[in-house]
Amino acid sequence: MNDQNPPAERRLPPLQLLLVSLQHVLLMYGGAVAVPLIIGQAAGLSREEIALLINADLLVAGIATLVQSLGIGPAGIRMPVMMGASFAAVSSMVVMAGMPGVGLTGIFGATIAAGLFGLLIAPFVCKIVRFFPPLVTGTVITSIGLSLFPVAVNWAGGGSGATQFGALHYLGVATAVLVTILLINQFMRGFWVNVSVLIGMALGYVLAGMLGMVDLSGLAQTPGLQVVTPNHFGAPTFSLAPILSMCLVVVIIFVESAGMFLALGKITGETVDPQRLRRGLLCDAGATFFAGFMNTFTHSSFAQNIGLVQMTGVRSRYVTALAGVILISLSLLPKAAFLVASIPAAVLGGAGIAMFGMVAATGIKILQEADIADRRNQLLVAVSIGLGMVPVIRPEFFAHLPQWMEPITHSGIAVATISAVTLNLLFNVLGGTERSLLTGASH
Predict the structure, then answer these.
(1) Domain ranges, residue 152
(2) What digits encode the pLDDT tens for the residues 6-64?
(3) Which of 202, 240, 359, 407 has the greatest number of beta carbons closer than 10 A?
(4) How many domains does the chain have?
């Protein structure tokens, strides 16, 4: 009977539901904890205070994932979406952390103001869905996959902190994870394919442990239970420049999220109309507003989890809803969160190469729905993907542009999206109108 339901509404057997949900958590966990780690270090916090930042982020990410997956009131897109702290604001927040009179409480204040700003503009931004035909959506999704590849490669080589980046033991573990995923997808069916990433990562974790790559030092000193309380670092403070910078970040997050929601709609077979897009953006903004009070930062949808949806073929929103519950549980159980955080980067790298590639492959598949034989459309794809790769290949390329532009220029997804939408307007919307007038054709 489940098979008669739309893919997003299907309910899985309990064990399969749990395992697929765990895959989502393990995939996004590294990204979720990276932002509070970076900002905590920039703000000069102690190890205990940084741990609290991480737990706060997991709590808000879990609640926001639940809202996005199940929908509450006017918010939540009701598709399999994972939420977490956004990287779009990292560079701006690092600067704020060192600014006199701003610091951590100023970052939280700017986050609250930006969340409120997002709630106000979401009903207007959702109308941009008509500017995302398959030509634009396919280009953006391909760019998402390509921009994530360096993350997977960095993981596979041992991660940013590796003393011997690219050493054989890192590459061996990443290869073992990737080969396991490929073999399961080739020779097995159903349940096993759905949890192939989890099996590959579990095997990789065991192999990494045997090679001495798993560090569990500090686990005994980690508290068993910890509850995140609002405004732990003091009442939020509000300064104009940080607020304006963070409001710009929210606009960029909305652009990225719109592309990701439309991508997910294509993968799940769900229609993402302006009303549904508004619900998704309201959840992004609401999570950011709430995050400022709960000692964490701007939140958005995680692109890498879209690859997992495509990879496994499991498109049920109840999977990510349970993943949200797991994130909330991890925020309350620091020992459990510690164990998840101990997964070596090389293990994530092997899985990431397969999943991020699947995102790019989805974009290429969607591009087949567009008139890609048209030379101008080919140019749109080529230029947009090329520009989207600039911040990925040379992050310092835009270093001499105004600092307020950093949330845009540091995001390959944002650059590719803006380019694709602009060129589509130029080539196909405005250009199409002019050609219709010249030829007397009606459309």
Answers:
(1) 7-227+252-431
(2) 877 888 899 989 998 988 888 787 777 778 877 886 787 776 787 888 889 999 999 99
(3) 359
(4) 1
